[in-house]
Specification:
mainly alpha, two-stranded antiparallel sheet, 3 helices, elongated
């Protein structure tokens, strides 16, 4: 389930799923395995739900500011003019 990052909650959810990608379970107990995609999604969903329930981050539903793609050539010209 891939969500487009439109709100702060969506961005946080995606960041959690990505961060959990390298987590291993049971390393000390000989159960060494990676966390499955479903488990990563469940952890992210539960985290967002708990934050909403406790009101820890009031602006979770705020839209993310989207800036237009800048002209890379103009940016490079600006660096050359500074010298």
């Amino acid at each position: 389930m891939v969500r487009p990052s439109k709100t702060k909650a969506d961005l946080l959810w995606f960041s959690l799923v990505f961060a959990l990608g390298n987590v291993r379970i049971g390393y000390r107990y000989k159960l060494d395995r990676a966390v499955t995609q479903a488990e990563r999604h469940q952890v992210a969903d539960d985290t967002i739900a708990e934050m909403r329930r406790h009101g820890q981050w009031k602006d979770l539903d705020d839209e993310l500011p989207i800036s237009p793609i800048s002209d890379g050539a103009a940016l490079l010209r600006g660096f050359k003019d500074d010298k």
